């Protein structure tokens, strides 16, 4: 509870959180207003997918910076050393800090989307199930990128290094990996598409968008070609669960391994 209270005070006092929320809300409001001219049957779902596509570029950047600098600040202000000296082990500190960051940031961003839901209700035919599915994807999205930011905050030893790492990771995940997929796409065949599918769906952004697109009824999984059926060989809910568990667990493990390089000592 102490970590949650401390994290909430630190995040809400900073300008970065409110800047991120303000930018996301402003961009989302433009998309909501534009969605008034969408067809009425799937206009709300198309708007949610458009909001997610916009979030795909902005939300990882804000999430990485907020979570990584929250951890880095503990090292910079020496509060981590005080906690570790008194009663905490490094693993316990990382776990409690990670939980606090996840709970506070996810809660604050969900609050923003719930506020946006008021505007959605006025402009569009609001569908509760579709909106809850969208919120679920956002929670998984934040869970992964918050944990990635925590790892970077532990691994980096200076602010300049941390800023560079955040931008490099954001650029790689959002842009570079997609360019690599496009480069290798011409050599994908019916025989090796299963291998390509594993790599494709281990990218959480791809999995989340495909899950949201099918869940909102904007893409049908029926009457697909044999190649497409082999590509989507596993239930998308299982793939979402795998990404939601595998990546945060892996990144937490890496953070605990890098703690000495990041100047965390037992």
From TrEMBL:
Taxonomic superkingdom: Bacteria
Q: Which UniProt keywords apply?
A: Membrane, Transmembrane, Transmembrane helix
Q: Which residues cross the membrane?
A: 16-34, 54-72, 93-119, 131-155, 167-189, 233-258
- The keyword Membrane is annotated on this UniProt entry: yes
Presence of the UniProt keyword Membrane in the record: yes
Protein name stated in the entry: Copper ABC transporter permease
Question: Which organism is the protein's source?
Answer: Ammoniphilus oxalaticus
